[in-house]
Amino acid sequence: RIMAEENVELSPEGWVAGQTQKILETGTTEGIEVAGKPIVLLTLRGAKSGKLRYTPLMRVEHDGAYAAVASKGGAPEHPVWYHNILAHPEFSLQDGTVTKTYRAREVSGDERAAWWERAVEAYPPYAEYQTKTDRQIPVFVLEPV
Ligand SMILES: C[C@H](OP(=O)(O)OC[C@@H](O)[C@@H](O)[C@@H](O)Cn1c2nc(=O)[nH]c(=O)c-2cc2ccc(O)cc21)C(=O)N[C@@H](CCC(=O)N[C@@H](CCC(=O)O)C(=O)O)C(=O)O
Question: Which 8-state DSSP code applies to residue 91?
């Protein structure tokens, strides 16, 4: 029996959906950028709906692992996907034309500090976002499974 391909939801945010669609059309994240920096495409499962949702994030990579930074531009609240990644921490991430499975864990202390530095290096506006909110912006490390 061929299982029907599960539908994956686009973001309701127009620009986010547009960048996602470009990745799907071209088959790569190459050339899709925010402030001139590269992005990656996660496919996360909704914590309540169980729906798959395309969630593009900035590309923060080190030694084959990635960081997912729940910045949402420094908004007062975490992005909703923060709950999705906690509820379903194993998911696929596409970087360029390569899609692999990763497992996320939220980091704190020195480990978080090291990844925060890498994140700001990869996408400097993260530092500015953190000054805009007193919530500590969550950082997840994504390791290949
Ligand atoms: C608007 C809302 O988005 P959000 O999950 O809050 O996340 C907001 C943004 O972080 C998200 O759009 C990111 O993709 C934006 N974004 C980045 N967002 C970041 O936080 N960090 C980044 O580094 C980042 C980079 C980036 C690069 C390119 C790009 O196009 C977008 C980028 C959303 O998608 N809502 C949907 C889905 C909601 C959802 O996931 N519901 C859960 C329920 C979860 C619960 O409440 O328990 C479910 O389905 O079960 C809806 O309302 O229908």
Answer: E
